[in-house]
Amino acid sequence: MLHIQDMSGKSFLDVGSGSGLFSLAAMRLGASRVHSLDYDPQSVACANELKNRFFPDSAHWTIERGDALEKNYLAGLGTYDFVYSWGVLHHTGNLWQAMENVLTLVAERGKIFIAIYNDGGKKSRQWYRLKRLYNQNKFFRIALPAAFIPLNVIRGLIRDLSSRKNPLTRYREYKKNRGMSVVRDWIDWIGGWPYEFAKPEEVSEFFKGREFEMLLCVNRSGWALGNNEFVFARRAKPTSA
Prior knowledge:
single chain, 7-stranded mixed β-sheet
C-alpha cells in the first residue's frame, strides 16, 4: 500500500497498535523510530511482549497506552513520516474527531495509511443497532450470538455441501489465515463497539480539505461492510519567494 521497500531513516506511528505486529514489521523494515499506542492495556502488554521477544534492547521502539481522542497527549508525540491506523478510528466513538487529531501527526510529505468501515447503507445502520444492543443489554449478549453463530454455520455448511467441499476445511483454513477462530471473529464483529462508518468519498474529501492528497484507495462496493483502505500524503508547504 505504501509502495516502499524499506523504512530506513523513517519514523512510524502505530495508532491503535493492537498486538504490535505492524510496529514489529516497521522495525524489521528498518524504521529509525517506532511509536505504538493503544487504548486497551492488554494490547499494550501484548505489544510489549512482542518487543521483548524480537527487539528487547532497542530504544527506537516505544509502546504506551494512548487515546486518539486526547489532543494533549497526541500533541506531545511530534510528527512521523508514516502514520498507520488500520481499522481503529471507527471504534473511538468519534470517528471524524479522531481523524482530525491523527492527521496532525503526519510530517510534511509524510503519509497516513488508514482503514475505515464502509458505509453499507441500510446494512451498516442495522448492525449499528444490533451492536449497540449487544453492548447495552445482557440478554442480547446471549441472544444475538445464539442466533448469529448457528445461522452462519448453516450458511457455510450449505455452500460447502453444494460445492462438495469438506465443511471442516473452512474453519481450519480460516484460523490459519486470520489468526483467530471464525467463531471468535464472529463474536468480535457482533461486539465491536463503538461502531462508525463512512463512504469513501467522505473520507477522501475530509483529507483533501486539509492539505492532503490521496495516493491510493481500495474501496468496497456500495453495500459491503468491510474496511475501505486509504493512503494520503501531506502536501509540502509552499516556499516563500
